[in-house]
């Protein structure tokens, strides 16, 4: 083994270690940024190691270097532009698009290698088929998920015979895949696998409702990692396999945790939508009880004279870009000696960790972010809960059977002494049912856009003696 080969292997080992350590650091919001940076550096080292390896092999021509360089520049520029310009409310869509890119790239790698190598072992053929199937499902499914998150469909989409079509596509993919693994080296047969996988991805995501989207994004992320791992097997690249396996495993664990947080199985989520709610448009409705509104000055008085306040952020806060206003209100209350914390439901927002990232962007202290299991016992000792744009995750109806949110763990905000809900209207959430919290005698509705309402609360609270 030459010195170059040894250096490449050591660099690949360093990259793999960086991925593992980076993923570990992402367990905590306080170290997540460093974990992201370490993982990115590990990926840079891995890419450079591959470039050195292919250069040392002597197979690279000037044309190939130009193709690689152009691809890297275009992809890097697109990624940098997207990351810097995307709004926080559009982050789930961006993640879905990145999942699609990862799945599509893994599929193309498998296709290109299969076309190039006319004699592949059964093991490599199996990895190729799995790569194509998982990558194809991820690509089309992620594009549909991004479109749904963008609000292009107001309801889960289905049609007569959809389940039969899914079953037929699955059988066709299975038959063609077995043929490839058995040794039939035919690009057209593998193309059938690709086409059927794309169809399966579309039919899988179309009927899924908005409330299940955080779980779906996590699941597709796990698919992306698994497809990349299969691509590593196809190419014989251990670093690619390790990186993909880490993403696939962590995404799978997160998907299970997210599904458990909704008291649903992953299979039931894939089988159909949750409720009838929209991903981009709320469904009009009422609370079904006596609803009372509250003026800004009265809400400010309640907050200013409380001893303990818990803020419950939801997607409405993200949509209004009100994270800075809620942080300013929290700091103002703290300056008055009031204990302030933020209750984060696992499926708040539209993707895992959405609320954590949003509040971190506004420099809310990590120590104030409380997970559902930790914060629920504290509501009984809370003077005022301020709900900003959260709906289904606070609905007491989840404790009763027979409705769209039955069994879903919720934030027990109705246990507090007083609840103030900042919301534009009485529209229902993604599950498409009324929130019983709004009719609770302890609840007051502050009808306002989250950003304007919170800014007014800050101004009014400053005037309280």
UniProtKB/TrEMBL annotation:
**Superkingdom of this protein's organism:** Bacteria
Q: Does the keyword Cell membrane apply?
A: yes
The EC number(s) attached to this protein equal 7.1.1.1
Specify whether NAD is a keyword of the entry: yes
Keywords, alphabetical: Cell inner membrane, Cell membrane, Membrane, NAD, NADP, Translocase, Transmembrane, Transmembrane helix
Which catalytic reaction applies to this protein?
A: NAD(+) + NADPH + H(+)(in) = NADH + NADP(+) + H(+)(out)
Specify where it is mainly localized.
membrane
Q: How does it sit in the membrane?
A: Multi-pass membrane protein
* Localization per Swiss-Prot or TrEMBL: Cell inner membrane
One matching Pfam family is: PNTB
Membrane-spanning parts = 6-26, 38-56, 62-82, 94-112, 124-149, 161-182, 188-208, 240-259
User: NADP transhydrogenase beta-like domain spans which residues?
Assistant: 10-459
The record's function comment reads: The transhydrogenation between NADH and NADP is coupled to respiration and ATP hydrolysis and functions as a proton pump across the membrane.
| Protein family according to the UniProt entry | Belongs to the PNT beta subunit family.
PANTHER family in UniProt = NAD(P) TRANSHYDROGENASE SUBUNIT BETA
What protein name does the entry list? NAD(P) transhydrogenase subunit beta
- Natural source organism: Jatrophihabitans lederbergiae
């Amino acid at each position: 083994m030459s010195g170059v080969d040894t250096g490449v292997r050591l660099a690949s080992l360093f990259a793999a270690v960086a991925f593992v350590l980076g993923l570990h650091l992402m367990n905590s919001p306080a170290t997540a940024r460093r974990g992201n940076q370490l993982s990115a550096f590990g990926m840079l080292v891995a890419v450079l190691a591959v470039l050195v390896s292919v250069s040392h092999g002597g197979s690279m021509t000037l044309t190939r270097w130009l193709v690689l360089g152009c691809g890297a520049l275009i992809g890097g520029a697109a990624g940098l532009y997207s990351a810097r310009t995307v709004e926080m409310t559009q982050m789930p869509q961006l993640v879905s698009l990145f999942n699609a890119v990862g799945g599509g790239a893994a599929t193309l790698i498998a296709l290109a290698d299969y076309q190039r190598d006319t004699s592949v072992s059964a093991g490599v053929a199996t990895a190729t088929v799995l790569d194509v199937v998982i990558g194809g499902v991820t690509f089309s499914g992620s594009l549909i998920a991004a479109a749904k998150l963008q609000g292009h469909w107001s309801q889960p989409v289905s049609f007569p015979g959809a389940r039969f079509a899914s079953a037929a596509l699955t059988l066709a993919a299975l038959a063609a895949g077995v043929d490839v693994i058995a040794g039939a080296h035919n690009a057209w047969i593998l193309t059938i696998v690709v086409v059927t996988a794309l169809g399966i991805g579309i039919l899988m995501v179309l009927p899924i409702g908005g409330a299940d989207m955080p779980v779906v994004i996590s699941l597709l992320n796990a698919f992306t990692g698994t497809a990349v791992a299969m691509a590593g097997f196809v190419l014989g690249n251990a670093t690619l396999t390790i990186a993909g396996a880490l993403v696939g495993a962590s995404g799978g664990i997160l998907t299970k945790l997210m599904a458990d947080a909704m008291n649903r199985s992953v299979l039931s989520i894939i089988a159909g939508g949750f409720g009838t709610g929209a991903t981009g448009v709320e469904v009009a409705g009422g609370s079904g009880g006596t609803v009372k509104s509250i003026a800004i000055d009265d809400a400010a008085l309640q907050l200013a004279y409380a001893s303990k306040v818990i803020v419950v952020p939801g997607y409405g806060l993200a949509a209004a870009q009100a994270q800075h206003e809620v942080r300013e209100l929290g700091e103002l209350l703290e300056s008055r000696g009031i204990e302030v914390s933020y209750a984060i439901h696992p499926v708040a927002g539209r993707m895992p960790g959405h609320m954590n990232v949003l509040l971190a962007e506004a420099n809310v202290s990590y120590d104030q972010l409380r997970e559902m299991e930790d914060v629920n016992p504290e509501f009984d000792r809370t003077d005022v809960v301020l709900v900003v744009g959260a709906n289904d995750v606070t609905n007491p109806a989840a404790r009763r059977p027979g409705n769209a949110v039955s069994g879903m763990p919720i934030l027990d905000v109705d246990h507090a002494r007083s609840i103030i809900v900042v919301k534009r209207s009485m529209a229902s959430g993604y599950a498409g049912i009324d929130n019983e919290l709004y009719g609770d005698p302890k609840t007051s509705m502050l009808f306002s856009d989250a950003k304007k309402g919170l800014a007014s609360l800050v101004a009014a609270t400053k005037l309280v003696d």
